[in-house]
Specification:
This protein is of the alpha+beta class. It has 4 domains: about 5-155, GAF domain (Beta-Lactamase); about 175-270, 2-Layer Sandwich (Beta-Lactamase), CATH 3.30.450.20; about 270-340; about 345-493, 2-Layer Sandwich (Heat Shock Protein 90). Helices cover about 40% and strands about 25% of the residues. It has a 6-stranded antiparallel beta sheet, sandwiched between helices. Strand 1 and strand 2 (about 55-60) form a beta hairpin. The two termini are about 35 Å apart.
Length: about 500
Amino acid sequence: MTTLAELSDDFTSLSEAAIDHLVRLTASWSLLADLSFSDMVLVAPDENSGGHEEFVVLGQVRPNNRSTLIVDDLIGSVQPSSQWPLVKLAFEGGKRCVGEVSIPARDGAVPVWCIPVRFDGRVIAVLVRLQGPLRGPASLYEQAYLSIFERLCSMVSDATFPYREDTVAGPGMPRVGDGIILTNGLGQVEFATPNATNALHRLSVYAATEGKTLTEMGLRLRVVERSLEYGIPAMEEVDRSHDVSILFHCVPLFDHGAVTGVVVLLRDVSDLRQLNRVVLNKEAAVREVHHRVKNNLQTISSLLRLQARRSDEHDTVVALQEAERRVRSIAVVHEVLSREPGEEVVFDEIVRSVVLLVEDTVLALHPVEIVVNGDLGTLPTDLATPLALALTELLTNAVEHAFVDFGGPDNEHVGVVTLDLSLEGECAVAEIRDNGRGLEDDFNLDVATSLGLSIVRDLVRSQLNGSIEMTSVPYSDGGGTLIRVVVPTELAS
């Protein structure tokens, strides 16, 4: 869908600042649509037509509390001025024009307001309000809504609405139907809707509202004072006990540059906050589980290390050290998840920990450098744990065995092990390359006698549903061994 900024660039000569003003207006204008029970359309002259004979529709919004009058999407369409004569009059005269207009697919004329949108001293667009029929005579509250709407329209023409500081409508913000309190320039309540009164009752405020400030009613809100004093929108959430939360959003009203009142939009967010607390408690519980699993694995690792120190058999010591390293590699994943619990984990953090683990635990008789290139981004936790274990085994195997009896009598050859990570389509790819002595001529991964390689082979093929290849690199290409692991990023259930 074409954006307002793109349409403005294509059809108008508006400056970047003027376009930004219109973008901010459309970010807040659902408040205007709801207050007026009307569809609203934002139009500007089509400069490609060479005058004000055609207008391009830059934006369109429908009310949340009334059925729409305009079924079609008009955004991006070019409208002739003959069909919208009041739009042309409002743009050229710079004053609000009120009348009627005929709309396709609707019988009879529809009341219309054409409100000039002024910025930097000139009219840059026209806000068209198309009002549907009210359900009978306007009630007291509907009259109050329309009165607030008219005051905001004057602010649009005076360039004091939208506000530079913030938008006043959008996802998560209170809507007109949630509850409204209107105050005058002294902060005294002029009227409050039933929903707003109910919200005050939930905060244990039962005093009569009319003619009193919220402070006099026992509810001190800094946001109301801030909006009155500084003329900027402000938001504050008030809690009572553990299960009541009311969100107050204050919208200042201006007249000739002076704040003349505040529209306070109220929303009862108690259920939402309760849900947030449940989610946070669940996340905390999951984080604690991962933390305890990590601690238990570290305890097992310590026991294995202690047992290895007490053994006099070399083969037993090596086996216990390898088991200890594998346990630590699994603990690495749970350590990351204990910080950021969820169904996915940033694999870069695990890779860094795995590399440090290999460097700390492997005792090589020759200098070896591990280099990591690329990343795999975010992976499912069910994939991250076995993949981390596989990479640990492969890196350890490369550091320990690739350079044995290689590099001359003084063993001065500097070993380099490179881990290249990348995503290819729906697969994660890890390539481990060393510049060591390469594989034996009769090497066969399917009949590998090494426990570590057997573990990696079974992890990749059986648990990760992937593939693994190990080949010697020709001496002309630098020599060594290349291991390529490819696993799907979504494990089959």
